[in-house]
Amino acid sequence: xxxxxxxxxxxxxxxxxxxxxxxxxxxxxxxxxxxxxxxxxxxxxxxxxxxxxxxxxxxxxxxxxxxxxxxxxxxxxxxxxxxxxxxxxxxxxxxxxxxxxxxxxxxxxxxxxxxxxxxxxxxxxxxxxxxxxxxxxxxxxxxxxxxxxxxxxxxxxxxxxxxxxxxxxxxxxxxxxxxxxxxxxxxxxxxxxxxxxxxxxxxxxxxxxxxxxxxxxxxxxxxxxxxxxxxxxxxxxxxxxxxxxxxxxxxxxxxxxxxxxxxxxxxxxxxxxxxxxxxxxxxxxxxxxxxxxxxxxxxxxxxxxxxxxxxxxxxxxxxxxxxxxxxxxxxxxxxxxxxxxxxxxxxxxxxxxxxxxxxxxxxxxxxxxxxxxxxxxxxxxxxxxxxxxxxxxxxxxxxxxxxxxxxxxxxxxxxxxxxxxxxxxxxxxxxxxxxxxxxxxxxxxxxxxxxx
Amino acid sequence: xxxxxxxxxxxxxxxxxxxxxxxxxxxxxxxxxxxxxxxxxxxxxxxxxxxxxxxxxxxxxxxxxxxxxxxxxxxxxxxxxxxxxxxxxxxxxxxxxxxxxxxxxxxxxxxxxxxxxxxxxxxxxxxxxxxxxxxxxxxxxxxxxxxxxxxxxxxxxxxxxx
Lengths: 452, 162
Prior knowledge:
The complex is a heterodimer of chains A (452) and B (162).
Chain A: H1 17-21, H2 29-34, H3 39-45, H4 49-60, H5 72-77, E1 87-92, H6 101-108, H7 110-124, E2 128-133, H8 138-153, E3 169-174, H9 184-191, E4 215-219, H10 220-232, H11 234-238, E5 241-242, E6 245-246, E7 248-255, E8 261-266, H12 271-276, E9 290-294, E10 303-304, H13 307-310, H14 316-323, E11 331-336, H15 341-355, H16 361-378, H17 386-397, H18 414-428, H19 430-439
Parallel strand pairs in A: 1-2, 1-4, 2-3, 7-11
Antiparallel strand pairs in A: 5-6, 7-8, 9-10, 9-11
Helix pairs in contact in A: 3-7, 3-10, 4-7, 6-7, 6-8, 7-10, 15-16, 15-18, 16-17, 16-18, 17-18
Chain B: H1 5-16, H2 25-36, H3 41-51, H4 55-62, E1 76-81, H5 84-89, H6 91-101, E2 108-113, E3 125-127, E4 130-132, H7 137-149
Parallel strand pairs in B: 1-2
Antiparallel strand pairs in B: 1-3, 3-4
């Protein structure tokens, strides 16, 4: 079991540099300009538009920071040439449990996001961008609106920007409390004024997205990284990180750590570094061992406090191929050995059951079943066959869930995400769950069985 | 008419910023909810006219989203997170305390919500979408009381500033 890291690992700040250096005014136009905002956009405007995506972003190896980790330049390259209008949408509907990086970026460095949007829009030839911002982020909305207004006043948005002949408008669209709208096609539905239900692909958004026009959807952190790629050059950026996980990422560290918070670190450090380094997580507050942690937001399967897992590098492909987990949205939730994993699995199942949009039957019905069964196990009412029952439901949503890559019977990944907790219990805490079920509801009359 | 003259002007601006008017349903519903304290049937009918769809379509969209309150919900919407980080750091205890304390208070609507993206400072809650973090049950109650006494200024129930 882990004690401390061998060498203290700290942050590598690019995307979070301004908001750390100027805690009092990083979100104002004055503060942002004083620390170099829009210089990268000015530089981009002197470059050949297409080369930014095809050369700089491609060379940087930048992959989406929202969860799927798809290469950004490749996503842009799917846009059919010469079709206009085309749209750019910034996905700021951050709702993945325990992820809180986009909220920080919008509230505390909105100009960096505006600049990133402007660079992306210039590169793909888009003149109307949208930011889909989670409805609950009221302060973020105010600051982003102010930032757009100020950027307009200084000539960084609007018509003929900086004399380049390039036009761009940005509209901010507030969501209204639906996690599913973080899924890109559900987001487009919501942006069109519909219920946020995912669309069947193909067609992919790059071909027929918003209003059936070619559309690129990028996460807030992905877009906020672009100014740095333009400034330092794609090849230089790719020197950071490890393998195909280049650059830095912001990890939202929470739960049983001494220093919870957002940390921008170079990819390739280990989970042990992130959780235990005195400059990062600092270990558990109680000094107790880590029992398990969720490495990439609630949708990911879990890892345990074993040396094998803690010493795994933050490398998107490595953890996927080795353990079947994902770095996802970059949220790492840490639990010490006082926590009952079934309770955590139940709360996650409750979340997914609540947030299932209801379009696909396996997810709509299955997530609710999983929640009910995990509730009764975690509240002392488990029955001997419950783990098998959970598994059979999980397999209907996500066949082969234990042997990644699994398949899914639903349109979007929310269904399989609801099974992640069950699969993790099965892999690592089977004995504990079986024991809880075996103790069962012996003293409770049948009529009082909790089924909810 | 539901929207007051200032908000009607703002509503028309919002509709104009989208290539298709129906996109404005969500922002207009937020605007109406901030003005009226909840999303009234009259407001949904007016939104339908502004974006040129039927009132049923507006209801169909709005009923999908938990932030839209289609019944009166009091002056203060208190959203307490109990998701997996807050779960182990005391969120459920705060929810229980506030639910008991304001059970008969028509001004305060206490609700359990999913992750608020404030896990670094858990447990957390929002009062009319203003964040409050590092809470315990007594501190949370004191904050709600401060809003009630006017010590703290609240946003609208949809998170906007009036």
